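Quick one, T. Sequence first:
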Amino acid sequence: MGRHFGRRRFLTAAAVAVAGAAVSFLPNPFAAGGEKRNMDKKRDENVFFWKGVALGSGAELRLFGVDDRQAADWVNKVLAEVARLEKMFSLYREDSLISRLNRDGYLTSPPADSLELLSLCRDIHALTEGAFDSTVQALWKLYADYFAARPDAETPPENSVKETLKRVGFGKVSFDDREIRFAEKGMGLSLNGIAQGYVTDKVVALLKANGVPAALVDMGEIRGFDTNGRRMWNVGIRNPDDEEGVLANITVKDKAFATSGGYGTVMDKAGRLTHLFDPRTGVSTPRYKSMSVMADDAAVADALSTAFSVMDLPLIRSVAESRRLKVRLAMPDNIVD
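Structure tokens:
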């Protein structure tokens, strides 16, 4: 298999105070259980760092202007919320709700969070004319199984892709408060293109509800907030070919930012085919080196960075203008638009 470069590592971040002093967070090491440091002596502000795992990948949390006891309490609440959501949406857990749904083809009495997320999936599917489709799991399985047995092959046979596409299409998923059900046997959901953003949004809502004054949350996608409106978040889009290189820097204030890259996971030994499938065609060939979206919510930024990765530029521009989004894309030659 080719190189793996997790999409979460496409972003670096720093906080900029109103006075203009910068506090750099990456690549500083964080203690696994959390670490509080006085990072800005001029303002004498305490910053609490936590680093761990959410939905199978690295997660980070930075709380500003907090004391030890407050931070410990808030982090415990965040961990409980992440654990609750992982039980629904994680494909890494055989006992999760999504794993049960994929195994059985239906799920009775689905929780409100799952219905909320599926409703958002439906909206983004329509907005992107089918480019975002959470039923892409069947394609993932086809490619993964094919190249596991034939690592030097070029692409799966066209007839296999066409047959698999019969089990792809969000219109074949019905859901209400009674049940979620697939219309075709062998279908499967993957929320990996939106769940990290959704979890980030839920953590932000939890922190705000508990009176946290400011935080930078990364549960797979980044979202920062400051109730005093002082901070801006400088987000660097890393070069997939160089973990220390940055393609561009973006300033975010009370927004979410997500980046998808075809180089996050490659399917074949040659590294030509990626995990970013076009659910309309079954094609797995990267159009762009990376795709970044800034939006009010991390779930929307997450889903659209995924969808835009397989869309033509005119449709990307149309969607971005209609939703007042900021988009930055890197072409294969590293030119950032």
